[in-house]
TrEMBL record, chain A:
All copies of domain YCII-related, residue ranges: 19-97
Family assignment from sequence similarity: Belongs to the YciI family.
Native species: Streptomyces kanamyceticus
Protein name: Transcriptional regulator
InterPro entries: Dimeric_a/b-barrel (IPR011008), YCII (IPR005545)
Alphabetical list of Gene3D superfamilies matching this protein: Dimeric alpha+beta barrel
TrEMBL record, chain B:
InterPro entries for this protein: DUF6596, RNA_pol_sigma-70_dom, RNA_pol_sigma70_r2, RNA_pol_sigma70_r4_t2, RNA_pol_sigma_r2, RNA_pol_sigma_r3/r4-like, WH-like_DNA-bd_sf
The name this protein goes by in its record: Sigma-70 family RNA polymerase sigma factor
UniProt keyword terms in alphabetical order: Sigma factor, Transcription, Transcription regulation
BP GO terms, sorted: DNA-templated transcription initiation
SUPFAM superfamilies assigned to the protein according to its UniProt record, in alphabetical order: Sigma2 domain of RNA polymerase sigma factors (SSF88946), Sigma3 and sigma4 domains of RNA polymerase sigma factors (SSF88659)
Keyword Nucleotide-binding: no
Top-rank taxon: Bacteria
Organism: Streptomyces kanamyceticus
Domain RNA polymerase sigma-70 region residue range list: 15-81
Amino acid sequence: MPRFLTMIRIDEKNVPEGGPSPELQERMGALLEEITKAGVMLDTAGLRPTSEGARVTWDKGELSTTDGPFTETKEVVGGYSICQAKDMAEAVEWAKRFLSTHEDYWTITAEVREIEG
Amino acid sequence: MSSDEQPRQAIETVFRMESPRVIAGVARIVRDVGIAEELAQDALVAALEQWPEQGVPDNPGAWLMTAAKHRAIDLVRRRERYARKLAEVGRDLESAPPHTDEPADPDDIDDDLLRLVFTACHPVLSAEARVALTLRLLGGLTTAEIARAMLAPEPTVAQRIVRAKRTLATKGVAFEVPYGPDREDRLGSVLEVIYLIFNEGYAATAGDDWLRPALCEDALRLARVLAGLMPKESEVHGLAALLELQASRSAARTGPAGEPVLLADQSRGRWNRMLIRRGYAALAQAQAAAAGAGALGPYALQAAIAACHAHAHTYEETDWQQIAALYGLLAARTPSPVVELNRAVAVSRAEGPEAGLALVDALGAEPALEGYHLLPSVRGDLLARLGRSAEARAEFERAASLARNAREREMLLARAADC
């Protein structure tokens, strides 16, 4: 059964003020518990803002480090999950359910990728 | 929900994900897993008819559950009317009281799922039937998938499942989680079924069929589900820990040509660290749950042994003293010649080949190990380490003649040639 990495992409500049509402956190918590109980969820976490992150680049033999925030990128990874699902369709269905816990004023994207090997 | 995809595929995916819960919820009403599965299928047909036109509902799982439950309640009412009519004509018919209450919270669904697990793994069924039924009802596998995974013809598996459902109905197996002294025995059967499913896939990793390793993942998922359903049972966590740790090695267990790679030669960089971490966490839960109840059970002990291997960054760093001690506990808890043989290997690593050989030789007359290729294989290994080459070669050749897996036979013949 393949494993999938789901990256939750957000636009840091347009995250609703105050972050996730208590209701959203509650719905999210309940869903994450459900996914875990279904034996699907292997690991998940949110990520600290890119202002606290760094990018290290290797470009034709040149190393460079850029500290966050990454202002030039519209969407950044705000969280991830690693799931074990039957197939891509199942992984996508769980991602849909995760996104659907959000209120209508959110704009977020879940990128679902199969882990090789 | 979106209209940007083929509804049929979405429906089938949702159905596969939800079917164990739907079957479990409906079985509580109709008290028959065979009928429950049919009613769940009816709900799927209804979804296939309605969703493409009306769109996939926001909560498709709840939709399927409600649709199936309405059918179940109708069925129970029809049965009651039938029973009343029979009674009117003077016949006495025992009929189960209807259970039409809707589950209010997720705990009810958990209870229903647990009942489904215990029913599918009921000892009234043969081990093969339990495995097939568990994969079908709880793993959401189709009959064709189970047949491929178990290397059995599809009609055979279909028959096995039909007969299993009929047996449960005719023997009047209650849809329940047993309490009291029964409970431990029955839980043992549930854990055994999951372990059998795992081993069916694990032992076959060196085979040709690429589908069988997927069986390990199915078993692992079932173990995780069970651990979520029975968080207080130490052995459930013990089994989950054992499977996580064993699965963590799968990528390293076979070489480029599909040949088995022994533990000593496995590239530990290919062990899956995340599964190892999950194994440690499950083992810690097993230990915590056992703290009140006394000693660790056999699955948790085997998990503890697997954890010792996972802790070692190289084969040489392995804490064989600890492993030998754990095998000692395991042998005391569940005495078996196979455990004793494994203990001999651990002792030989901890104290030297002579000590191991003494234990192996004590097993020589064990009828249960007659024809078991690992006994001469281990003996050959110990003799080789003692420099008794001619005897070692004879043992490896004997082991090769007993091995049933072609890859393993090749490896043993190669070892014989090296002596």
